[in-house]
Amino acid sequence: MNTRTANVDITYNGQNITIPMGQFKTSVSYTDKASGECDSIDIDIQDSSYDWLNNLPTKGATLTAMLCVNNWTKEGDNRKLDCGSFVLDDFSFSGPPTTGTISGVSTPAASAFKETKHSKTFEAVTIAEIAKSISAAAGLGLVIDADLSFKLASVEQSNQTDCEFLFKLCETYGLAMKVYNAKVVIFDREAYKKKDPAGTIHRADMESWSWKTTLAGTYTGGKIAYTDPRSEKDITFAIGSGERILECTEKADSAVDAERKLRAAIDTANHGATQLSASVTGEVKYVAGQTLLITGLGKCSGKYYIDKATHEFGNGYKTSYELSKVEQTAEEAIKDAAALLADIAVISTPAYWIVHYSDIPSLGALLLKLADAIWSNQKGTNITTASDAINALSKAGIIKNPEYWSKNYTAVLYLDKLLINAANALGL
Questions:
Q1: Which tens digit of pLDDT belongs to each residue from 193-222?
Q2: pLDDT digit string (tens) for 162-179?
Q3: For the chain, what is the radius of gyration of the CA atoms?
Q4: How far is CA 105 from CA 33, 44, 102, 111, in A?
Q5: What does residue 64 show for φ and ψ, rounded to 5 degrees?
Q6: H or E segment to which residue 91 belongs
Q7: How many whole angstroms separate alpha carbon 109 and alpha carbon 155?
Q8: Residue 196 DSSP code
Q9: What is the spatial distance between Cα 376 and Cα 387, in angstroms, rounded to a whole number?
Q10: 212 CB contacts (<8 Å, ≥6 apart)?
Q11: Is pTM, for the whole model, over 0.70?
């Protein structure tokens, strides 16, 4: 049987140094960020023989890395994650014993992109055209996955680097931007949040986790005041309702421009209102910008967007995620719960329960609790009536109000069978 392994393939200035690097490296950390910050890599080394001290790395040199796992979840499960290219921007050494850290970032070596400030006015131009001009000047490619066909009447770059100006411009219109593998990548974060989850992580997969939510900074609507450039009239544009209204201070060229900026501001303010951090055994399948379905955490379960993924190689391989909940996606968690319950024969038609989980209050919560509690199909008892099942589930703490379920187990077709199967699967 082949051994499970994980490794990082590294090139330095175009030469593969994976094997010689293996003599020195003690750990590797790769951070993949969805937007706003550059990806980064840090390689810790031991250098007792002064191989690196006598041949110091060169600032501005290029580094590439590929995460590789072999026979990971089963024999033959071989996968890779391309971390892209990095520019070496920092290195340090200390001793004794002689150790060092070599660090790289995904932004280009050209200082103009992230260090030189410019002032310039763009008129009658699209964001795509601005991004094309800036990326070409920095020697970078450009990848756009968003509708950027709309024109902006006027945009001012005021004493800003190209990097910070383009990021701020994208953020103003609800777009995510990062530099990956020598390319500027721009995408619509809200559209990405609507995509199907790339995979599922259950509580049992997590080595550790933490969850937090806040009402502060979340909004149900907003308004923006601007001066119409043609009529010179002051206009207020508003969307949504409720007590928590965001006051947007952005300037606008038109009602359409005002709406784009206001919706983007609300989405940005609300993003991250509910956050989850989770560490798992190393995983190369998921990248920042994708969504995951998190299960097994009760009401904290649901669909989450990957803001950042950090991969650490050293004493084993671990991946840590920083996630933001995609709100109002209870159905996604119900779908996953129904699929799990079908896998262990508690229900036979998950599609039915996805349609009917909201027919009576608390049924959706019950499905989530059952999926969370049932780890395997134990079938340790032989309960045959809904009343006995309700009693058993109540004793186990799955059901808090047995009287409610005793009155309502006939309110939804097949609910009695679900309760009986669940009690048996739990071995109650």
A1: 989 889 999 888 999 999 998 766 578 788
A2: 989 999 999 999 999 999
A3: 27
A4: 11, 15, 11, 13
A5: -125, 155
A6: strand 79-94
A7: 26
A8: P
A9: 23
A10: 274, 275
A11: yes
